[in-house]
Design brief:
The protein is of the alpha+beta class and 416 residues long. The protein has two domains: 1-48 and 207-242, no CATH class; 49-206 and 245-414, no CATH class. The chain is built from 13 helices and twelve strands. It has helices at 51-68, 89-96, 100-126, 134-147, 153-168, 177-197, 258-277, 294-303, 307-333, 340-356, 362-373, 387-404, 408-414; strands spanning 14-16, 23-25, 34-36, 43-46, 72-78, 81-86, 172-175, 226-228, 235-237, 281-285, 288-292, 380-384. The chain has a three-stranded antiparallel β-sheet with strand order 6-5-7. A three-stranded antiparallel β-sheet has the order 11-10-12. Helix 2 (89-96) packs antiparallel against helix 3 (100-126), helix 7 packs antiparallel against helix 9 and helix 8 runs antiparallel to helix 9 (307-333). Pfam families: PqiA (PF04403). InterPro entries: PqiA-like, PqiA-like_proteobact, PqiA-PqiB_transport. It is a multi-pass membrane protein.
Amino acid sequence: MIAKKAAKREQTDVVGCPQCDWVSQRTELSKREHAECPRCGYFLEGAATRHHTLVAIAAAALVLLLASLQVNFISYSVTGSEQSMTLMDAAWQLSFFHEKVLAVLVLLTVILIPVLYLVSLIWVYSQIHNSGSNRLNRYFLRLMEHLKPWLMTDVFLLGTLVSLVKISGLAEVRLLEGFWGFSVFVVLLLYVYERAKRTPIWDYYMATSRPNIHVQAGMTANEQDLQTCPLCHALNAKDADKCYQCTEPQKTAWWRKPGTTLALIFAGAIMLIPAHWLPVMETVRFGNEQPATIIGGVTELWQAGDRPVAVIIFVASLVIPVAKVLTLAVLLLLAQRQTPAIVQNRLLLFKVTDWIGRWSMIDIFVVAILVALVRGGTVMSVYPGSAAVSFAAAVVLTMLAAMSFDTRLFWREAHK
């Protein structure tokens, strides 16, 4: 049984699952309860939380991020020379070395997108009782949903720690105010993200008029000539151009077609070839250039005794990208060979593959940190390698492939 705590506004009594297309009934939720799809276990909604608390924590996180940009992040000293970097330098120095694509990617995923997400959340949750701003609020709610997959501050923080391990044996490293402020910001952002995901926010911005359609629980939306909105889970007519509740365009069948997913998988696989063949960064020590591939960096860390870090880089940069390409390709090609007994296993495999894909960005963030921090001329400097853009492209393409993967095919093919 699907449930939800009553809001002040009128509610619909059914909700669709964007993962398996099942339509379920809704009832009230008590505190700390949440609702899952009875067919596939997809998290649909949770009980209401205190909106003012969420806004306050989001505002504190935003202030911490902006403050972290104003002070030094990390410093290191070697042979009497000391260098320091700010958080913004992680993107700025990449741009200085003509790696503008990487610079924009780091700037977006670490700074701009988190800022946009928090600003949108603060606006939406602070305007809940203002009925005159529904259209603008729906826009910000849609923006929040689209930004979620690209919040990578936690990946960047882990990449920072890996960077420190890589250079700790060559120089004295100090963590400064910017690092600690950013670390607290990441914790607050993750908390806000999880709490917002569990709050039935759409109840407060429900459309006053709904389409005149008959919906029955216990069936799929497709069987009733309906479609489930992937953002707000509202049920719309099959031929609807946009969702009546959140105004998200619904004519996106091309995006979730197997052909689109397969093309993105293939493109990502092609990008992995130069990403692992060419050097991802180059280190200059006393005038000697030392190019390093991804596997070369893993080997160096292992031989230096930093085996836990070597394992992290090996899994994130080698195992995960290759495994994600192979897994998505196999799941897509075998979609027409489903049986009810194996659908749940394949869905679990897809969920794990989708979740771990973003962690492959660790290597890109390691390069960004080292390029920004280690700038000692011929004494010791780090420069981005030609493989960095290819690897970043492979990560982005495989993430897009997972987003375009239509998991509803599992059940449709299994019940043919």
